[in-house]
Amino acid sequence: MSSRDGMTGVYNRRHREILLRNESDHCRRHYQEATLLIIDIDHFKSINDTWGMVLGMRLLSP
C-alpha cells in the first residue's frame, strides 16, 4: 500500500498514525515531550469550487 496521497504527495492518514505512534513511543522511552499541531481548513470545498482544484491542491501540497 502507498504511504502518500497520489495527488498531493503528502503522507496519508494511515502512515501519519504510524509515525505518530513511533514518535510517541520514542518520547516515552526517553522521557521527552512532544507537540502535535493539527490544522483544519473549514469549508475547503468552497475553495475548490471558487478558485479551482489546482489551487486547492497547491494549498495542500508541502
Structure explained in plain terms:
The protein has helices spanning 13-29, 44-51, 53-60. The protein is mostly helical and 62 residues long. It has one domain (13-60). α2 crosses α3 (53-60). The relative contact order is 0.15. It catalyses: 2 GTP = 3',3'-c-di-GMP + 2 diphosphate. This is diguanylate cyclase.
Summary of the model, kept short:
The chain has 62 residues and is mainly α. It is 53% helix and 0% strand. The mean pLDDT is 91.
Topology:
Elements: H1 13-29, H2 44-51, H3 53-60
Helix pairs in contact: 2-3
* Major sheet summary line: none
**How many DSSP-defined strands?**
0
- Poorly predicted parts: none
Radius of gyration: 15 Å
Strand fraction band?
A: under 5%
What structural category characterises the helix and strand content? mainly alpha
SSE topology string? HHH
Number of helices: 3
Alpha-carbon distance between the two ends: 21 Å
Share of helical residues? 40-55%
Protein name: diguanylate cyclase
EC number: 2.7.7.65
Domain GGDEF: 32-62
Enzyme class: transferase
